[in-house]
Amino acid sequence: MYKPLPIGVEFFEKIRSNDYYYVDKTLFIKELIDKKGEVNLFTRPRRFGKTLTLDMLRCFFEEGRDPSLFEGLKIMEAGEKYTSQMNRYPVIKLTLKSAKQNSFRNAFLRLREEIIGEFSRHLYLAESDKLNEEMKSVFMDLYRGLSKWREKEDLLTAEEEEKEIEKESGKYAASLKTLSECLKAHHHKNVIILIDEYDVPLESSYYGGFYDRMAGFIRSLFESALKTNDCLEFAVITGCLRISKESIFTGLNNLKINSIMTPNFGEYFGFTDDEVKTMLDHYELSDKYEEVRRWYNGYIFGEKNVYNPWSSIMYISDHTGANRDYFPKSYWANTSSNSVVKDLIERADSVTKSEIENLIAGGSIEIPVHEDITYDEIYEKQDNLWNFMFFTGYLKAVASRYDAENDITYATLVIPNREARYIYSQKIINWFDQEIVKKTDRNPMFEAMRSGDAAGFEKEVNKLLRASISYMDSYENFYHGFMAGILIGSDDFSIKSNRESGDGRSDIQVIPVDPFERAFVIELKTVKPAKGESVTMEMMDSVADEALRQIEDMNYMDALKDTGFSIVGRYGISFFRKRCRVHYVEGYPGEG
User: Where are the beta strands (DSSP E) in 404-484?
Assistant: First the structure.
């Protein structure tokens, strides 16, 4: 009844041959030809279709490919100017994503495997009568690099291995140019080069401590393949971040950069609103449109508003058929590296904390845009980290302005949708639990709570509140999670949240291991001033008393009494932003 969804399928031929659902992005080919860029860099967040797009280009342009793969697609209606380019060129396609390794040695070896794999795909060149013997010899030397390495790898000392890798990296830095020359000699046509995830080895090398060495190798690879290569027809490179020309693309005057701020090509990475509606119709999920829009829409590339394609497909997969009422999830959180959000939170000073809280509450921040930062510059200043989050999809620009006097573009940024907002809140929870709560001596807080010392309990809770980053618009569920989190960890009692008791559900019950110790019921309330009204201590006291009355009126203590606890305390706590007020009453109501 429904077409299968291409979950994890990144090969265009497989999608078309197996009749997977395909969102037609083939007019990307038309725009690419029209714009006539020689070296085209496209930067988009992870999981936004870059790999599939490059494979589509290979299937369209590469000589010997099946032209029927494009039957019925938009590019076939674009005219002879474009269809005449089909299956006309030799193509080199390389992905650098396997170089996400913890050392230069491991990263280079994986890159070399990828390069040799592309040599293997064109192994017919070794038998070509159009290549001279010298070209064949160089080709075969590069092709046999992996097997030759394996023959001597176990015999090398650490020092010898390092020298060998240095020699090999120099040799393979020029390998794409060599392969281009061999392909042109055989086909008598210039070569198209497609490079996917070019910045993955740069990101991992920065975190691994070998950025300069990896940047040097990538720079040499690109210079030979893209700058000094007379055999190049054109190239397309994809990645998440635009690395500065001075760092990687040295001297590449033919480089055409297409970032998320560039007005062209906006609709080809991600799904448009009409494409999502059509897909939901096909899977009989049209009534889920608003939910999908809230969770996965909101990315602005150039002048186009698009959905996260990976998350949209995963949502439809999870909701098709009997599971149509399944809750939405943050699929992107499980596929992208979210370390940048963790880094942002861990490095946050009071100003940055305030900015994060404002973003999560639906507000915005304004930053100067730096499109050409490098990975080793990300942590030099806070603006660079915000820029990194912007270009990798964790924030979107809703407005921009240009300061002509200082030649600076400023962007107003917001969190794009509920899925991205979920990543922030979950990272904040984890960061607060692991970096703040677990490293804080909470014994004074536990002791104050156990002894009914409301002032001491309040003092310790306020310390942790000031260190936290609030989210969820400061509603009671934030403070509920906050309190439950900071109370967990004592061997003397357990914490129960939202347990049925009396005529409702109490916020928190503190159950001691020793049945002769005090048990506690804790009720939490936020202070909600009227517009323009200032919050006073008297107002916070009043709300804390209201929380105590709710415990009594709703008989929240009944469950503890039925369990056999003879000593019970009641805490009413009021919250306003980074401040709380704690009131305490001991004993069951009516016992004096």
Answer: 408-414
pLDDT of residue 434: 66
pTM, to two decimals: 0.82
Of 14, 21, 6, 11, nearest to 51 (Cα)?
Answer: 11
> What percent of the chain shows pLDDT beyond 70?
94
- The whole-chain average pLDDT of the chain stands at 89
Q: What is the topology classification, in CATH, of domain 440-586?
A: Trna Endonuclease; Chain: A, domain 1 (3.40.1350)
Residue 521, helix vs strand vs coil: strand
Report which secondary-structure segment, H or E, holds 399: strand 396-403
* Alpha-carbon torsion angle 36, 38, 44, 47, nearest 10: 100
First to last CA, the chain: 70
pLDDT (tens digit per residue) in 284-307: 999 999 999 999 999 999 889 999
CA distance 550 to 572: 9
Long-range CB contacts (< 8 A, 24+ apart) of 438-441? 438/489, 440/464, 440/467
For residue 457, what are the contacts with CB-CB under 8 A and spacing of at least 6?
445, 448, 449, 571, 582, 584
Amino acid at 160: E
Positions of E strands within 175-318:
191-196, 232-239, 255-258, 299-301, 304-306
In contact, 455 and 580? CB cutoff 8 Å: no
Which of the residue ranges 32-46, 337-351, 412-426 would you say has the lowest mean pLDDT?
Answer: 337-351
Residue from 67, 59, 62, 44 nearest 11 by CA? 59
How far, CA to CA in Å, does 256 sit from each of 41, 91, 370, 468?
6, 20, 17, 43
The tokens for 440 are 């804080």
Query: What are the domain boundaries of the chain?
Result: 12-267, 270-334, 339-421, 440-586
CA atoms within 13 A on the CB side of 480: 17
The angle, 0 to 180 degrees and rounded to 10, between the axes of the packed helices 418-431 and 350-360 is: 140
Q: What are the residue ranges of helices labelled H in 153-257? A: 158-172, 175-187, 200-208, 211-222
pLDDT of residue 442: 92
- Residue whose structure tokens are 């490059």: 54
Q: Amino acid letter at 299?
A: Y
Q: pLDDT digit string (tens) for 114-157? A: 999 999 999 999 999 999 999 999 999 999 987 888 777 777 88
Return the CA Rg of the chain.
30
More confident site: 421 or 296? 296
- State the residue for tokens 């293997």: 120
pLDDT at position 520, please?
Answer: 94
* Nearest-angstrom CA–CA distance, 581 and 102: 49
The answer to whether 299 and 305 have CB atoms below 8 angstroms apart is yes
